[in-house]
Amino acid sequence: MTGPRKAPAIEELGWTPGLQASFEPFALRGLIPARVIAEHRMACDLVCARGEFTAEVSGNFRKAAGSKADFPAVGDWVALAFDPAARRQTIQALLPRRTRLSRKDPGGEDEQVIAANIDTVFIVIGLDADYNLRRAERYLAAACAGGAEAVVLLNKADLVQDIAPRIKELDSLGFGAKTLALDSLNRKGYEALAGLLGPGRTIVFAGSSGAGKSTILNNLLGRAEQLTAAVRADDSKGRHTTTGRRMFVLPGSGALLIDTPGMRGLELWAGERTVDRTFEDILELAARCRFGNCSHTNEASCAVREALDSGELDREHFKNYLKMREEASRLKAKMDIAERLKRKAGDKRFSKMQKDVMKHKRGGSR
Ligand SMILES: Nc1nc2c(ncn2[C@@H]2O[C@H](COP(=O)(O)OP(=O)(O)OP(=O)(O)O)[C@@H](O)[C@H]2O)c(=O)[nH]1
Ligand SMILES: [Mg+2]
Ligand SMILES: [Zn+2]
Fold first, then answer.
1. Are 112 and 63 part of one and the same domain?
2. What is the pTM of this model?
3. Whose CA is nearest to atom 32 of ligand 1?
């Protein structure tokens, strides 16, 4: 017989004395901490000291939220007004995020937070037709931009003879990320993951559909918790089997694993400066250009072009950098416009308020 699943204690979900200290102001208001373990359209599942519950944000929370990213995502810590009689618990506040994995919302211009307060991003790449170095680079940049450590899991190692060239080209990207090979059909290579799975450590799986994220999660959990499905034979594309983000506690090690639906694409959510920081090698070269604002197109004594010509700097790597930087600056332009409109609306509201006050005054003195 399988009874109801026992909810893990909040300490098992990574609650720390440091978080407890920052929670004091909320505790004084009678609120309790909870961690979001799954997202639904208008609600989320969370775990608090009282157990596992469904919750939604309060009306005031909704009013104060400026964008989608202000709403709780999987991995977030929230302040909960707990009511044992309520059908749904109420989230009053979101605690600041330590790290995040974000992208540009494919359906809009907003930031989409894929997971919050994560230690590591497992970038899962299938060694079938899924393998794509430029896509790997995007995921690495996104993990880096969100402040989390990245580890590349080259999955389906059973399908290739020699993995060494793949590992070499991933290393050459210069992110300093560990790359591990896994054969998840035969559960090979998993020993290397042990060191990354400490108690309370939060890990999010990211990658395209069919790469094997849920298969790896199931192997680690030791049970078929998540559905998996075969990829298309002709192009290795997955069938978008996992449809929501959810966190699982790994028995034994106590790590927290977040499974996610396969992503069709990942447009970076980061500023130009972050992109520059994630492409340190290019930044270092650019520092050696004669002109400080060198565009590396036609200026004299351009260290970047020289490195491209000599082969020291990979052309595809440089192209990817330019593309991500372009995305970042386009994003910045959009954000600036949005910010200006917001300010303008605020100004209007303020001048209307002033007018109302004046009217009121005039009315009063009549
Ligand atoms: N040959 C081989 N197949 C694998 C391996 N790992 C996973 N697969 C298969 O790949 C297919 C897709 O695996 P899933 O775990 O469903 O992939 P996913 O990344 O969770 O996909 P979405 O949920 O759609 O994002 C399944 O048929 C798995 O059995 C592996 O190491 N080798
Ligand atoms: Mg899946
Ligand atoms: Zn230059």
1. no
2. 0.85
3. 156
